[in-house]
# Entry
Amino acid sequence: MRRIFTLIISATLLVLQAKAQLGVFTENVGTGTSPSVNTYTGWTSGLPASNYSGTAGASVAIPPTSSTQGGSAVLLKTTTSQETQSFTISNIPITNFGTVVIGFEFRRPSGGATTLVQYSFDEGGTWSNFAISPVLATSGAIAWNDGPYAATPVIVPAGETTISIRFVIISGNGNTDRENYIDGIIVAPSIETLPVTTRNFTAVPRNGKVNLSWTGVATHMNSKFEVERSIKGNSGFNTISTLPAKAIGEAIYSFTDESPLKPVSHYRLRITDENGRVSYTKILKVAVGGAHFALDNLFPSVANTQVNLVVSSSSSQPTEVFVFDSYGRMVIQKKIVVATGSQSYPLDISRLNSGSYTVRLTQENEIITGKFIKQ
# Structure
């Protein structure tokens, strides 16, 4: 575990050299002793002494055996059964961190205790627990070389620039006069890739349009969200908009479908992370009303022998297809039956001369058009 964690931090430091706007916080406590962490002057991180606080049982002491950092360590000492002591470092800068990870060394010469490592993004208003690996034993002794310990990365909420961390020790039932030492504290942006996630995905019809919004949590600026739409809901989805990640961390995204499929549109998000991994949200069904007939796509836009017309329709209808050249002359006329939903229909253009063309599809009183170039 020590080697793995060292590799994580080393790799993180390499990332930081390439991204100077990021920083790493380290606190090796230094040397010397103090009856209280609130009055200790040997902090090595450069933060003001007022950023360090602790309960009555929190002090700085020289441990029985030194950690790899040497010198002193934070001591959380319990003297009674089921007693709680804690040590807090407040407002550690994490500007531009998408995710954050913490590492530390720990020693307990004997006895048992529950150890919680917590974080807060609102200056201690709300505390959450880090998941620590390896798990800190609740009984028996813990040596320095049993660690170091690392937390599972957590996502930094959008706009947050500081984090507070807290170590909480709760002595075991019947355990008294127990000493718990902490040293080599590191807070850094994580190099571990977390999945891009979304929540609060909604689609609301309004004035003939559909407004979509969601909260996205991205860990890399190369992530993207694609809005996909279908008339069926179980197939035939086409991308109607692509939104790149606007921030590392949490952000709100929105898109308005100006021409939703009628009478019903189905929407989902296709989410791609920086490694190309794809996931999908749930499908939202929106009743729009009225009949629908649309040319969702025409591809390829430049072709030699064939183009494909992706047509969606709320009902199966006979449809006329016309192709006009740049002078307005009709060069192709044919009839097809458009099926309900979204389907692709091939169009042979092999006999056309090179140039720009307009394709027009008519269905009852509806007309839709598209363009392509014949090479």
